[in-house]
Amino acid sequence: MSERTGWDRGLSVTADGKGLVGHAGAVLLRRLADRIGLTRGLAGVLPTSTAAGWRQRAAVLVQLAVTIALGARSLLEAEQLQLHHQGLFGLAASDSTTRRVLAGLDEQMLTRIAKVRRRVRRHVWTLLRLRPGGFPWLTVAARTLTGWIVVDLDATVITSASRKEGATGTFKGTFGFHPLGGWCANTGESLAMELRPGNAGANTVEDHLRVLAACLEQIPRSSQSKLLIRVDGAGSTHGLLQHLQALNTARRTVRYTVGWKITEEDEAAIAKLPPHAWETSLTQDGQLQEGYDIAELTGLNTRGGWPEGMRLIARRVRPSRRHMKKLTDFEKKTGWRYSVTATNIRHMWGITGSHQIQFLDALHRDHAEVEDRIRTAKAMGLRNLPSSSWQVNTGWMLACNLAADLDTWLRLLTLHDREDLADAEPDTMRFRLHHLPARLAKHARCRYLRIEQTWPWAAAFATSWSRLTQLPAVT
């Protein structure tokens, strides 16, 4: 005997609706790509043709990025979503067509696309400076890093459930890939990413240099006068630090903070620190962080071969139970768990107190936010690479980076004054905006996409569309 609840009385469900559009947020993402010049720029470098049945490859790549931002996890899901949106965007590209487009993205083509992304980013950053509030400068320990562009490098593991080209065992004991990427901490944009086999080394200098160079190429020349590069312990190599130091010129200041792998020599230097050398660290809002101490280690550590002027900042904290098994003999003896940060910062122009070790410690710890960028990248299609082909997976990774940038730019340019959406995660954006249903109506040769007015974020959707329409189009 079924229980009657009342709400379903007289309710029937049928699959015969017409003029309905699911995932209506696609129009925001595609409109953004067109207005900032991404679609047009890609059309200028990707192959084109007037032959019947030919799909414009720029539109295919942009539309793939849009479907990934909406949640597509494979080429087949991307095809199904595009088929549903034919009333908005025209004929859909099949999964085989999209696969051919991705397979055709060789190194030369990827280089051309990178130049397009750089031009688009320059235009977007100009728009950001013109918006209310201006460009999003980073704030660390209650200090705003005005004028400084911060780049975070980090690697992650993408697991694979089947054998794919380049998939190998990883250092975490899993099977898959180990890509290395770089993000702009100011905006959250994905600047560059390199797909690597699962057994790629975490601290491979050549890989870091290539990704760093690709990241710097993405930063507009007008914003490269003051740069801060942050890397975790994988960056504490002679080659990378010497390269970062060499990037300094008369017109460009480059500062870095990197994690430091502690050796017995470092522990011996820490043991020489007097008790009064330790100071309480700061939280990201500038308050004292009780239980966490820091001290200057520069001068006590005599390890040679490192860049001149490099500083070492030691940090200690009482170990938690889960860290007890990983403590060294020295840490067990002292009862503290230690970490060290290497930096060449003696002063950051325009930042009061930037020479203080409390600020430098907080500045490097803020690098942990790169994990949010990695989580976003995986939510934007990188959780699983869909093909057995290395080339197709490389193209898919590019499409995922484009999707992440479109999502970021949409929030920065049109939702910056909405506290509930300005820093929203991908799943939040999908729930509140991107996955909205709408009715596509036609009248007097015009089309109208009608959003249900009772939806709490309907006004935000309409505002975002209006602001996109007002953006200056790229000519």
What does this molecule look like?
It is built from 16 helices and 17 strands. It has helices at 26-35, 38-43, 57-70, 75-84, 86-89, 95-103, 107-130, 205-218, 238-246, 264-271, 329-334, 357-365, 370-382, 390-414, 426-434, 458-470; strands at residues 20-21, 139-140, 143-144, 149-155, 158-159, 168-169, 175-177, 180-184, 190-194, 226-231, 253-260, 279-282, 288-296, 311-317, 337-343, 438-443, 446-451. The longest helix has 25 residues, at 390-414. The radius of gyration is 25 Å and the shape is globular. The protein is an alpha+beta fold and 475 residues long. The strands form 4 sheets. It has a 9-stranded mixed β-sheet, with helices on both faces. Strands 1-16-17 form a 3-stranded antiparallel β-sheet, with no helix packed on it. Helix 1 (26-35) packs across helix 14, helix 3 (57-70) crosses helix 14 (390-414) and helix 4 crosses helix 6.
Rg, please?
A: 25 Å
Q: Per DSSP, what share of the residues sits in E-state strands of 2 or more residues?
A: 15-25%
Q: Could you name the ranges where pLDDT drops below 50 across 5 or more consecutive residues?
A: none
Total helices: the number is 16
Indicate the multimeric state: single chain
Report the sheet with the most strands, covering strand number, pairing sense and barrel closure.
9 strands, mixed
Number of strands: 17
Tell me roughly what share of residues is in helical segments: 25-40%
Topology summary:
Elements: E1 20-21, H1 26-35, H2 38-43, H3 57-70, H4 75-84, H5 86-89, H6 95-103, H7 107-130, E2 139-140, E3 143-144, E4 149-155, E5 158-159, E6 168-169, E7 175-177, E8 180-184, E9 190-194, H8 205-218, E10 226-231, H9 238-246, E11 253-260, H10 264-271, E12 279-282, E13 288-296, E14 311-317, H11 329-334, E15 337-343, H12 357-365, H13 370-382, H14 390-414, H15 426-434, E16 438-443, E17 446-451, H16 458-470
Parallel strand pairs: 4-10, 10-11
Antiparallel strand pairs: 1-16, 2-3, 4-8, 5-7, 6-7, 8-9, 11-15, 12-13, 13-14, 14-15, 16-17
